[in-house]
Structure formats: C-alpha cells, structure tokens
Hints:
mainly alpha; single chain
Amino acid sequence: ERVIFKMEKLATAYAGSEWINRDISKFPNGEYLDWNNLPFSSYTSPIIGAIVYFTSIFALTRFMKDREPIQLQNLFLFHNFALCLFAIAIFVGISSSLLEFYQKHGVSATWNDPNWLLPSSKVPTWCYIFYLSKYYELLDSFFLCLKKKPLQFVQKWHHSCVLFLFWSYMNARMMNHWPLVFLNSFVHIFVYGYFVCSCLKIQVPFKSLITLLQISQFIVDMVWALPFPYLRYYGMTNGDWGPWIFGQLVGLSFVFLFWQIYKKNQQNKLKKDKQK
C-alpha cells in the first residue's frame, strides 16, 4: 500500500497534463492576466514563430546571395537602442513588482510560490511582455542576413528556443521563472547597449565580459531552478515537470554554445596581440 501511495504521489507531483487543463479556481485571488485569451498564448504561436523565423532567414539569404550588403545603419541603431531601453523598462518593472510582492508575502512565496500567489500579482504582466519581446528580437537575425554576415548556429538556436521556453513557463503559470526575466533583462541592457555603441563607432573595452555575463546568467538560472523536483514532489511549489526539464536542457546548451564563442573570441584576440 505504501508503494502504491508513493507511486500515486509521484504521478500527481509530476503530472504533465495538469497545466494543459488549468483550473483557475486553484489561484486564491484569480489570475492577474487572462493568459488563455492573450495574443501569442496558443501553443501554435511559438511553432508558427519558429517556422516564419527559419523561412525568413532562408529567403533573405537567397535574396541577398548576388546582391551588395544592405547596411541600414540608422534603422539598426534605432532597433538596438529601442531594445536597450526596453530591457531597462522590463528590469525596473519586474523589480518593482517583485519588491511589492515580497513585502506583502515574504521570501518563500517569492521564491517557490507554494500557494500559487504569483499568478495573481503584477509579475505575470512583465513576464508576458518579456515573452512577446522574444518575437521582436528575431529581427536581430534578419539584420545580419541583410548585411550578409554569417548567422551562427547559436544565434538561430537561441532565438528559436526562447520562444518555446517562455511560452511553456507562461502556459504552466510558473511565474517563479521570474529570475530568468529579471536577469535576462539586466544582461540585455549591456548586450544591446554594446550594439548601440558599435553602431556609433564607440569602442567598448568590456566586450568579452558581456559573453561571460550571459554565461553566468544561464548558470544562475539553472541553479535557481534545481530544487524544483524536490519542492514539487513535496507540494512546496507549483508548475509542470515538462517546462522545467526543457528549461534545464536549454540552459545547458546555451552555456556550452556561448562558452565556445567566448573561447573563440579569446583565441582570436591572442592571435591579434601576437601579430602586433
């Protein structure tokens, strides 16, 4: 009987179907956002987004094959400046919402949200806006195609994965994925700030540190999420097992790929220094 009970508990704790048929009554104060009726909330949204993304890359690459690069310098500057300002807005917005939530409910509710209070707060608003921004960020690759600059695998993998990753978190109402939004928006201030400086021909001495900052972010994200299986099993948090596994695997792939970029950049820097 004990074995059967434990098996039933495991099945309940790791039921992947729980978030598909969400019972809104589970949220003590209801949902702050009506996710199911919001744009890009359907499971088809990231699928269509990824298809359009890869199709557009292929079409633009073919279109530019026998043409001169199109610089679009002013438009590219505006694009990066807008994303830099957007990252600041998200960072400030989610920070203020988290502070308000923490002051009202404490550390435990903010970290692992055992009573599922986060969906009733303002935090989902910023997580949702952040999720939408991942579709706009696909333009990064389109600019590179028009400039006839090679698209690395890591860029295509990163842009397509985050569509599915943040959709899955939003759909599972796992609002304790807020550290990803908090940290990523902070890092993007420097990433897009660097691109703005690059457009303006301003030398930035800490270019290599930005990649390390991104890698650090991915590691912190994964470490933060590590206790989820234990907390979920003992009913100390909510959410679904599927997005957690997907998030950890994506995080590992990002660390590996971005570390390769960092090593390559350092090797190129050493070669240049030797040639001087």
